Amino acid sequence: MNETVILQTPAKINLSLDITGKLPNGYHTLRSVFQAVGIYDTLTVTKTAPEQPLTLTCNDAAVPCDARNLVWKAAVRLLGENPCGISMHLEKRIPSQAGMGGGSSDCAAALVGIRKLLALPVTDAALHAHAAALGADCAFFLRGGTVLAEGIGEQLTPLAPLPPYPLVIAKGSEGISTPEAYRRIDAVSEPLPPDTDHVLENLSRGAEALFSVCGCHFDAVTDLPEVDTIRRVIRERGLNPVLSGSGAAVYAGCADMEQAERCADALRAAGLPFVTVCETVPDGIRCADLSIIHPEI
Q1: Which end of the chain is more exposed for a tag (fewer CB within 10 A), N or C?
Q2: Catalytic residue among 12, 47, 92, 171, which?
Q3: How far, in Å, are 17, 191, 195, 278 from residue 20 at the CA level?
Q4: Which one of the listed residues 41, 137, 195, 219 is annotated catalytic?
Q5: Number of domains the chain is built from
Q6: The CATH number of the domain where 41 resides is what?
Q7: pLDDT grade, residue 174 (50/70/90)?
């Protein structure tokens, strides 16, 4: 029999994203409000023979299942350069190159799942340090909910969690690489107006007040045709379209689920390949209790 732990790994949106500067090492500083949302990948981590090398599989053929994957890199952080004793399977539902942190969320889940499954003597502080070293967004997913992110995204200040506000989220077939998005930001000559202060001021004032002031600096430099289509459809319904992260997913907060579903129907009718309705969530990775999986006989 194999011991297995199953983790639900949420996506995120950026209620705001202000690029505030660029460090000598090339990293950009930011000020952003991260928000976990109810779209989940599923990571299954199974204990194998101690000497059996790590294996990683995925339902999406476009996802690399080797040392390029952040899930694999998480295993290396905890188990060394040649990790053994576990296998992992990833079910992807969060779209890639969407600015929704799917890879970072999966990475954080791998850290949590491996520690739990193998009962590793790794403190929460050490796990946070591993996550921050693997990616600026990874540490956020250990907590989830609503968080003010500063620095390069590693300085996290928890905020009061939002109620379950309805969202519609859409993405076209094209993605935007993070390096390209930042190259475009660097080419902007005039400072872009900040949104984070407005978001912080409106977090407790209800969905309409909050989502009307959400914004993202990458909106100013993102001009993909499908992104423009999403923006148009959302605006036609009186909502505020906001790019999530460096893109290319666009979200809008809605007054209720009925409004969100109507907007989603219009986006699907416009031919967008990824459209979903979900809610803001108050937590991060959801870890099922350790269970025993009996092999088929």
Answers
A1: C
A2: 12
A3: 9, 9, 11, 30
A4: 137
A5: 2
A6: 3.30.230.10
A7: confident
Residues 229 and 268 in one domain: yes
CB count in 10 Å sphere of residue 95: 23
What number of helices (H) and strands (E) belong to the chain?
A: 9, 13
Tokens 């990571």 belong to: 43
Between vectors from CA 70 to CA 149 and to CA 246, what angle results, nearest 5°? 45
Bridge partners of 90? 43, 58
pLDDT value of position 175: 79
Closest alpha carbon to 84 in 58, 112, 46:
46
> pLDDT confidence of 137, banded at 50, 70, 90?
confident
| 3-class state of residue 190 by DSSP | coil
Contacts of 297 (CB under 8 A, 6+ apart): none
The structure tokens listed for 231 are: 């923006």
User: Could you tell me if 126 and 137 lie in one domain?
Assistant: yes
- Asked if 12 is an active-site residue, the reply is yes
Question: 104 and 217: one domain?
Answer: no
Tokens coding 198: 């407005």
Query: How many Å apart are CA 173 and CA 128, to the nearest integer?
Result: 33
Quickly tell me which residue has 């491996």 as its tokens. Answer: 114
Same domain flag for 15 and 147: yes
CB-CB contact of 178 with 146 (8 Å): no
Q: Bridge-partner residues for 79, per DSSP?
A: none
* pLDDT grade for 289, boundaries at 50, 70 and 90: low
* pLDDT tens-digit series, residues 71-96: 999 999 999 999 999 999 999 999 98
